[in-house]
């Protein structure tokens, strides 16, 4: 067993989102709808991108991976949340809690790398359109995806090791609806100062390492767009990256608020976690489909093929 022998806590109690049964019932319906929309939206994106040859480009290769990650990310936390909203006792084992922490970090970490790669893809498409095929080759895209999973996995292992070595003695109530590392530290009777420092350093390195390429890519993109003399050209260039920019703001904004702000169990903690783990995975397919004419056209073509097949 990975936990120390003198740790006497075997499970945690989650406070959840509310104690009121009526509010819990409403929240169950709300998050069930959110989860179903997330699954349907992201599965639709995966199906359409795979089925339509017009979307077999680096941009949509990354977008299909984003849809897969959003499915995984949402499934790490939302099904457990739905179960707890119907339960009187919201319990989770220590091992289950650490497993949830690991998968939250690996999916969120990979998504951060992926959003960074998508920013570089937009930079290459807008700033170097003639060299785009060389800059974003299929081999490079696959290597970037594998590297993102590898780096996120390594970071997740390091993060979980911070929690595995903690001793949980008496306090066992997590003031949250899910297991996240910042919420576990206050429950430990060990000295967590070094663990907190390592977590902050890890988040900053990971966050800056993925956000800075986004920032510099968009700095170049904006500079290139402003140099276009045609208003139509500027509008078309901006429309190709606006969806991604919205996704970046939603994901990085809520994630950094959750992990860099002091943990207090406040409404802001809960809202920021819900934003990046439940709401953003639901919104991403809508953002990319509603603002993208190619995706809209591909959805129509794909639906047309399936309707003809079943006639």
TrEMBL record:
<comment type="similarity">
    <text>Belongs to the G-protein coupled receptor 1 family.</text>
</comment>
<feature type="transmembrane region" description="Helical">
    <location>
        <begin position="140"/>
        <end position="164"/>
    </location>
</feature>
<feature type="transmembrane region" description="Helical">
    <location>
        <begin position="98"/>
        <end position="120"/>
    </location>
</feature>
<feature type="transmembrane region" description="Helical">
    <location>
        <begin position="25"/>
        <end position="48"/>
    </location>
</feature>
<feature type="transmembrane region" description="Helical">
    <location>
        <begin position="237"/>
        <end position="261"/>
    </location>
</feature>
<feature type="transmembrane region" description="Helical">
    <location>
        <begin position="192"/>
        <end position="216"/>
    </location>
</feature>
<dbReference type="GO" id="GO:0005886">
    <property type="term" value="C:plasma membrane"/>
</dbReference>
<keyword id="KW-0297">G-protein coupled receptor</keyword>
<dbReference type="GO" id="GO:0004984">
    <property type="term" value="F:olfactory receptor activity"/>
</dbReference>
<dbReference type="InterPro" id="IPR000276">
    <property type="entry name" value="GPCR_Rhodpsn"/>
</dbReference>
<dbReference type="InterPro" id="IPR000725">
    <property type="entry name" value="Olfact_rcpt"/>
</dbReference>
<feature type="domain" description="G-protein coupled receptors family 1 profile">
    <location>
        <begin position="41"/>
        <end position="288"/>
    </location>
</feature>
<keyword id="KW-0807">Transducer</keyword>
<comment type="function">
    <text>Putative odorant or sperm cell receptor.</text>
</comment>
<keyword id="KW-0675">Receptor</keyword>
<dbReference type="GO" id="GO:0004930">
    <property type="term" value="F:G protein-coupled receptor activity"/>
</dbReference>
<keyword id="KW-0552">Olfaction</keyword>
<keyword id="KW-0472">Membrane</keyword>
<keyword id="KW-1133">Transmembrane helix</keyword>
<feature type="transmembrane region" description="Helical">
    <location>
        <begin position="60"/>
        <end position="78"/>
    </location>
</feature>
<dbReference type="InterPro" id="IPR017452">
    <property type="entry name" value="GPCR_Rhodpsn_7TM"/>
</dbReference>
<keyword id="KW-0812">Transmembrane</keyword>
<keyword id="KW-0716">Sensory transduction</keyword>
<protein>
    <recommendedName>
        <fullName>Olfactory receptor</fullName>
    </recommendedName>
</protein>
<dbReference type="Pfam" id="PF13853">
    <property type="entry name" value="7tm_4"/>
</dbReference>
<keyword id="KW-1003">Cell membrane</keyword>
């Amino acid at each position: 067993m990975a936990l120390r022998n003198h740790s006497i806590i075997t499970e945690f109690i989650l406070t959840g989102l509310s104690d009121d049964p009526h509010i819990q019932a409403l929240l169950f319906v709300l998050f069930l709808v959110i989860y179903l929309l997330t699954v349907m939206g992201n599965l639709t994106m995966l199906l359409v991108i795979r089925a339509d040859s017009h979307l077999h480009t680096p941009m949509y290769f990354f977008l299909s991976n984003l849809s897969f990650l959003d499915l995984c990310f949402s499934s790490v936390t939302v099904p457990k949340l739905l179960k707890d909203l119907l339960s009187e006792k919201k319990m989770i084992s220590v091992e289950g809690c650490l497993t949830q922490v690991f998968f939250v970090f690996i999916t969120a970490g990979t998504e951060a790398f992926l959003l960074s790669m998508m920013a570089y893809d937009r930079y290459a498409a807008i700033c170097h359109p003639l060299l785009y095929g060389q800059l974003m080759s299929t081999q490079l895209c696959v290597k970037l995806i594998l590297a993102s999973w590898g780096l996120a996995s390594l970071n997740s292992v390091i993060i979980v090791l911070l929690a595995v070595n903690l001793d949980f003695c008496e306090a066992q109530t997590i003031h949250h609806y899910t297991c996240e590392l910042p919420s576990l530290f206050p429950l430990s009777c060990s000295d967590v100062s070094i663990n907190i420092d390592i977590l902050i350093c890890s988040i900053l390195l990971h966050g800056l390492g993925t956000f800075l390429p986004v920032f510099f890519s968009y700095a170049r993109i904006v500079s290139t767009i402003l140099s276009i003399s045609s208003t139509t050209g500027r509008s078309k260039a901006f429309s190709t990256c606006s969806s991604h920019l919205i996704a970046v703001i939603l994901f990085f904004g809520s994630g950094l608020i959750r992990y860099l702000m002091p943990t207090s169990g406040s409404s802001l903690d809960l809202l920021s976690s819900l934003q990046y783990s439940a709401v953003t995975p639901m919104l991403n397919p809508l953002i990319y489909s509603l603002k993208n004419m190619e995706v809209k056209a591909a959805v129509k073509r794909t639906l047309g093929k399936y309707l003809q097949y079943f006639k």
